[in-house]
Request: fold
Amino acid sequence: MAGSGTEALGHGGANAAGHAEAEGASKRDFLKILTIASGAVAAGAIAWPFIDALNPTREAEATARPIINIGGIAENTAMRVEWLGQPIYIRKLTAKQIADNQFVVPASLPDPADFSDRVKPGYDSFVVVVGLNTGIACELEGNSPSDPRGPFDGWLCPCDGSVYDPLGRLRSGPAPKNLVIPRFTFLNDTQIQLG
Amino acid sequence: MATPQAQTKPWLESRLPLGAAWRANVSHYQTARDQPYLATLPGLILGALIFLALSGAVLSLFYVAAEGSAFHSIQFIIRSVNFGWLVQSFHTTGTTMLFAAVYLLLFRAILGSSYKGQGDLVWFLELKLFIILLLTGWLGYVLADGATSYWSLHNAALAGARLGGFPGAIADWIFGGPAGPGTLARMAVFHVILALLLLAVIGAIIVAKRVVAPPVHRNPVAFHPYYTAQYFAAFVIFALIFAILVFFAPHLGENHLNLAAGNPLMVPALLTPPWYLLPIAAIGGVVPTTLGGVIAVIAGLAVLYALPWLDRSKPGASTGFLYKLLVFILALDVIALALAAAAPPSLVTAILIKLFIAWYFLHFLVLTPLTSATESK
Reply:
């Protein structure tokens, strides 16, 4: 650092010492900014692998976002998959179930929710919920048409008797809330991706 | 009751005088001109230790310290974790750089006989750093759980169990028995504790070095920016060598047999530690019994501790040419000892190892007192 300063002074010569000093100072400023900037880039480059290593691995990412084939689900039945330790129910509604539940006044429900809140637009016939009762955590019955389903043809909790409709909305029982809808997207008509 | 001065100071400065500490120790700290670049070694060692602590912290998130799982968890880090191959390589090559810096630090201290007079405490602290670093390095090597790592730990734990009495009790506290459950988990814990201790020791070295630095009488310069710039340049060169090793020689000085998983039913053909443990392992291995090996290692380190007394020169006398020549020969002797210890065992290497160890002790116990006494006359 000192070397570059004296060198700049030497270039200026004896005739314009003040000018040379200003030039030396600007050169030093430039070198300072250059050094700090490249140091910041280097620090960032060192920090990046450490921080990125904290992210989930690709394998974990892939298992955390599984793609589920829903083309084989028959009407009026639900498929059960396990995801992150939770049972996920994917149910295909019948035309009658859609008609029965489409125009229910939300204010009349214990936990008000509209039909459009419970299904994805364009995929009216599929309901995807976490199949655990929202009161005491208990896996619900009613995936198969032969299961006990309660008065609304939806799901029934075998533990505390809470009743849900086919959209997973709470209709009666000690449970306080509608069934949880996991985060998912429709990839196409026959595939959804969880997560 | 606040004094008027305390009121004018900013809130933080009046409670924790960081600005005053910065001025006293960095921006207004007066330093002699013409300090060599190698005087930055303690700073580089501190930087390397912090870097190893960071990369080790990332590795510890994925490392499984259990027999039979540790090696595979490292494979998982290298193959699956984002940038895991780089972080793992950072950690092993960072160890190489750290040991190189510490060996160079000890070499410079012996060459310049800076252990004399007021510098004795710094020398003892540097040796403490070296010894803790050897232990930490061995623990890290064992945690790799490769073929040679496995057998190194196995032999050490077995030897510890054979020791009776108090030494055996210490070995049991460390290893938890010859085939103790969770031995690797213990090793991981000690590895971290000793690494944190190293940070404290290097901090003490840096402070103690400044206290005993000779007072500057002629044209002192401020530490900042003159020596911060020097530190920066030294750090860039250090980082450049580090980067070359990481990307072109990530397994430098390792026994390649350690790249296979440890197998309890198969002893590898060549059971050698990484390069930084080779000299001390050779000294420990030259005596056939366990207790003898431990005593040999202690003796090898004790002669370094005794150096301020073994040097018979008068206080203030500069080191002579013959002394310096002998220190260079000592450095070559230690390198040759490491190379002989890394070679496949044979009659020739066994004799060479004994010769090099004999020269090591001869240097400290005979040649150093003789040359320092004659040359300072």
About this structure: The radius of gyration of chain A is 32 Å. The mean pLDDT of chain A is 86. Residues 17-53 of chain A form the longest helix (37 residues). The interface with chain B takes residues 1-2, 35, 39, 42, 48-50, 52-55, 57-59 of chain A (CB under 8 Å).
